[in-house]
Structure formats: structure tokens, C-alpha cells
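hey so u asked for the seq, here:
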Amino acid sequence: MQVIASKVLVIFLYIAVGFVANKLRVLETDAVDHLIALVLNITTPCLLIYSICGKSSIRADTFSNTIIIIVLSIVMFIVFGTISVKISRLFSNKTNDQQNVLSVAMVTCNSGFMGFPIARSVFGQVVLYYSVIQNIACNLYLFIGCMIQLNLGESKDSSGKSKTISKETIIKPFKNVVTIVYICSFLALFSGIKIPTPVMDSISTIGDTTIPISMIIIGIQLGDCNFRALITDKDLILSSLVCLVLEPTLAVITVWFLPLNNILKLTIALSFTYPSAVLGVALAAGEHKDTKLMSEAVAMSTMLSMITLPIWIMIISHLF
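ran it, C-alpha cells below
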């Protein structure tokens, strides 16, 4: 437990570095886009390649566990999505669009951008591998299920035409760099293709930088938040607590009673403890929804996760 606590502390020290750097104007908000591009297009793909292709051997249950995590995670996202929609309707002082935005903020989780570094640094390679698998389900729900949630209560668009889920929405999760790396890495893993050691060593070194850079980015973003404005919005606080307390609790209870090995239970439960996904802001912008509210929801949940995430990591590591 002490080892876990020290690793969690290191993660949050990285966040503190980003926060202080922002406050001292060493790294301002305009640096975030470039750092995110670096993480999403270079360091995270390298981290994934090493996590997947760097496995020295494939256990007999690796493929079946992969399918179990994807299917179970999708089912849980659908259930949690339904719950988040029901709860969002309690925010009577918000418009329908704003309720939909908050429902998305409640169900999405930053299990990739924030989750991969934490899974790797705190729990190691095996949990990172299965976290990568879980994130596939997360992305599928994010780009399909959340698109439906954002448009609930609206049958027509601004031109009067009935709204449908476009082909582009369905294929979008499969067009980004990370997804392409997923697919290629799994093909290499299950076909027995080995990457030369010098290349793998370079990939590993680059991938390891994902951990500090990702956390520093979160620190920079928190440094630019108007905390006073955030903490006065009760709906934002409630939606964040649903994301960070209710849904992780339901996830832990669910996996506790399932006949799965502890690594799978830990991975699935851990994946639902993270704050709202930053990609939710991009989705809201694409659907012409309230991006300001979505940004505030992401910021609030990220800020509160500084308290809840270490607690959940301790609980989950003790249970599983």
C-alpha cells in the first residue's frame, strides 16, 4: 500500500509542476495544444506499442480477456449513460441542451489521456495493456453513445431535417492515430511479429514521457481555471460527483460479483474513476452545443479528482 501511495504522489507532483508553471507563466495555456498533439500523436502511440507488442508471451486467456473487457465496458457505459441522462433531468434550471451536455460529462471518463499514464506508473504493464483494451470501448461509446446523448430531446436540426447519426460519426473512432496503433499493435501481437529490440527500446523511452507530460498538461489546465466560478455551480458539482463517486462505486460493486480474475476487475473499476474526458468538449463543439459548460464540467471533475482519484486507487488496489 505504501508503494502505491508513493506512486500516486509522484503522479500528482507532476500535476503540481504544470500548475505552478502556468501560474508563473512559464507554460501558458497556448502551449497546451502543442503538448496535447505531442502526447496524442507521438508519445501515447509509443506507449501503446510497447504495452501491446512488448509482451514477452501471450497467455492462453489474453484473447478471451480482451473480449470480456470490451463487451463488459460497453454494457457498463450504456447503463451509466442511461443513469446520467436520468440525473441530468433533475437540473431544472438548465436547458435541454445543457442537461444533455452534463449527462455526457457524467458518463465519459479520461481513461486514455489520464488513465494510461496512471495505469502504467502505478500498476504496471499488464494493467496498462488491459486499460488500452477498455479505452477502445470508451472511444466507441464516446463517439456514438455520447453523440446520441447530446441530441436527446431534439428530433430535428436547425434546417428542419430529422437528425440521424451520420456515417462519419460511426467511423470517426477508427480514424485517429491511437486507434490505428491499437489495430496494428494487436495484429502484430497475435500474429507473432516481433519488433527489433533497439527499436522497441526507443519506443519504450519515448512512451515513458507520456506520464509526466500528460500530468503537466492537466496541471496547466487547472492553473487556468476560475475556481470561484466553478464551485458556485451546484449542478456542476453534482455532475462531477456522479462521475467521480457514484459511477466508480457502481463499477466496483459490479465487478466484485462477477467471476473475473482480479486484474480484469481492477482494470475495469480503475477505468471508471477518472474525471470527464476532454474529448467531450470537442464533441460538444462539433454538435454546436454549450462548449463553455462542457469545459467547466471537465475542469470541475478534474479538480475534484485530485481528491477522489488517490482514494479510489487505494481502495481498488486493496480490494483487487
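The chain has a mean pLDDT of 83. DSSP finds 15 helices and no strands in the chain.
lmk if thats what u needed
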